[in-house]
Design brief:
Length: 383
């Protein structure tokens, strides 16, 4: 063997010495191996109180957490609704406090659980209460019987996606045989884009900023969001939950200008095609010199405009999904179900956006008023 053959290559030498340094073996060296650098751990998200006049997970926290799991279930006919809700409320208190062993050691962070009851249970308590009406059927729906309606909604939100299935399992275990799960859907929101002072919204799966229009101030919440009627529902709200598949390939094939015409907004900034800022109202009367509307007649921002429809504002949340198909989990909160139904009826007529959607699950729920240790969840409605 020649000297050249017996000598280790330069690459092998560097690799060997690198391995020695990496393992901290410093024989023959006077200086100790450098300590591995530590990256500062991200700050834990602020805890969200589960108690108060309103349930958490609607206006608090702000902005909303990036991860959501919605679980829809049915109750047996003989189940006592009041005790079940009280138990679920107590479980929410221990889960969000981090004292429930079913969390498996996971810190709760900004965990929120929001619970609502479906129209059948509302009618059982009092048919005259808000939330007693089922959602009507609309076009562009392909909904299996299992995915339409439901008695119970458990909306679980958190910054840590690992919490969602763990908390859902704990709540279902708490309810036991008294409930039967119908369907569930998880979703996520992208980073929030600032659109105005104290207002931000994420982009949806189609690339557009979603959820700009809505009640943002406390006064707007009182007017459009919270129920102010009987004590049984005061401090609650009405939720609509709909899962939609999106025809991404067909939408992606459009030019950016044609995509913007579908929404009536600029994709990059969210500003209306009529001009102004993302948070400003579109000028639906603005026209080009040749007489065409700047915001097309079938644009989503025109068809769903609350001033045109003649309804109040809804607090809208959209979460992107990839199972069972790419799409959106749409959730809206409002104190009058007609805010949603009248809006969708007008969209159903000729909204360009709906041509790219198919609804595969749909339900509405009365989100119960807030609760605490002295006032159990749902106690004023179900005694």
């Amino acid at each position: 063997m020649s000297r050249a053959d017996s000598r280790p290559s330069r690459r092998a030498f560097i690799g060997a010495t690198g391995a020695v340094a990496a393992t901290g073996l410093t024989a023959g060296c006077e200086s100790p191996a450098p300590k591995p650098s530590r990256h500062p751990s991200p700050a834990s998200p602020a805890k969200v109180s589960p108690t108060g006049r309103y349930q958490a997970g609607i206006t608090l926290p702000q902005p909303a957490q990036p991860n959501l799991l919605a679980v829809v279930a049915d109750l047996g006919d003989a189940v006592a609704v009041g005790p079940l809700l009280a138990e679920l409320g107590q479980a929410v208190l221990t889960l969000t406090a981090g004292t429930d062993p079913r969390l498996l050691g996971l810190p709760p962070g900004d965990l929120t659980v929001t619970i609502g009851v479906g129209p059948r249970l509302v009618r059982r308590a009092d048919p005259s209460l808000p939330g007693a009406a089922d959602l009507p059927r609309f076009s562009r729906e392909r909904i299996a019987p299992q995915a339409r309606g439901g008695d119970l909604l458990m909306q679980i939100c958190a910054g840590d996606p690992l919490l969602l299935p763990v908390v859902a399992a704990a709540l279902l275990e708490q309810a036991g045989h008294r409930i039967r799960e119908r369907w569930r859907q998880s979703g996520r929101r992208g980073p929030n884009v600032p659109v105005d002072k104290d207002i931000s919204a994420p982009r949806n799966l189609l690339g557009f900023i979603d959820g700009v229009v809505g009640p943002h101030t406390a006064a707007e919440h009182q007017r459009h969001l919270w129920l102010a009627g009987p004590a049984a529902v005061g401090g609650g709200t009405i939720a609509v939950v709909r899962r939609m598949e999106l025809d991404l390939p067909r939408f992606t094939a459009l030019s950016v200008a044609d995509q913007e015409a579908v929404f009536g907004r600029r994709r990059a900034t969210g500003a209306p095609l009529s001009g102004g800022t993302a948070a400003g109202d579109p000028d639906l009367g603005a026209k080009t010199p040749d007489g065409r509307y700047l915001v097309p007649a079938d644009a989503h921002v025109r068809r769903a405009n609350p001033n045109v429809v003649g309804v109040g504002l809804m607090l809208r949340r959209s979460y992107s999904t990839d199972e069972p198909a790419p799409g959106l989990l749409f959730i809206s909160f409002q104190n009058d179900i007609r805010t949603f139904t009248n809006t969708l009826a007008r969209m159903d007529d000729s909204d360009a956006l709906l041509r790219f959607t198919t609804t595969t699950a749909s339900a509405t729920f009365l989100i119960l008023p807030g609760f605490d240790q002295q006032h159990p969840l749902g106690a004023k409605m179900f005694r």
